[in-house]
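Much of our argument rests on the idea that a fold can be written as discrete symbols. Part of our work consisted of pairing the sequence of a single chain with a tokenised description of its backbone. No coordinates are needed to read the tokens, only the vocabulary itself. The record that follows shows the chain in one-letter code together with its fold in token form.
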Amino acid sequence: MSVKIVTDSVADLPPEVARELDISVVPLNVRFGDRVYRDGIDMTVEEFYRRLASEKVVPTTSVPPPASFSDTYDRLAEETDQIVAIMVTSRLSATYEVALQSVGLMKKKCRVEVVDSRLAVMAQGLVVITAARAAKAGASLEEVLDIVHHNMKRADFRAAFDTLEYLKRGGRIGAAQALLGSVLNINPIITIKDGVVHPAGRERSRTKAIENLANFVLSYAHIEEVAIEDAQTPQDAALLAERIGARFPKERIFRSKTSPVIGTHTGPHSLLVSVLGDKK
């Protein structure tokens, strides 16, 4: 029986990719007022960003309930006896802890290994994709885990914003706090280091910010995978893909939308690029 792969919705996997590679995605929750929506299921991305821009209600996010994980594990245990769950960094979310604790709630017998990716967005997603490909090719659980831990060190991302206020409001700003209020009308750029948000630069225009993201990818000596995601800026995403296409085939770039649970903390004009590869 092949190893089954589980992740959470913070990985921002394109739905068609998750289906093709048989990846089970457990959604986090977004709360708008009294209503709770499962990320990527109960509300479209377009509807979420429309409400984010037009409503005074400030949305919040929460981790999946334990049953979301234990039910997923039990469902997969009908097909396999080995599961690898790759979660968003535990330093930004309690999702990893819930996924780990939920193993004890299972009704069926199955080995479940839960991994703290120390990543988020499609940087996490690229690690998940490589794990799922290996699992589909017949890799053992130990081999899948080795691939995951190896690629966690090779995955990185950059994200450009027109404001960091959403990250500040949600308490996820970390060391990028240093960028707040330093210069008016800047485009701050962030990444994640050691599982927490860190500043990665700032540019005075959106064009320069896109160039910064492209140069980040092109700085890699070997590029294995690339993913671009945006909230409501498809033109910027297309321009970024064009720039990266000078070195990496555009048709191989994963394209994704920033999910509501991420958009709650990043706002409607975020642009992100993730890469899996080697610097030297």
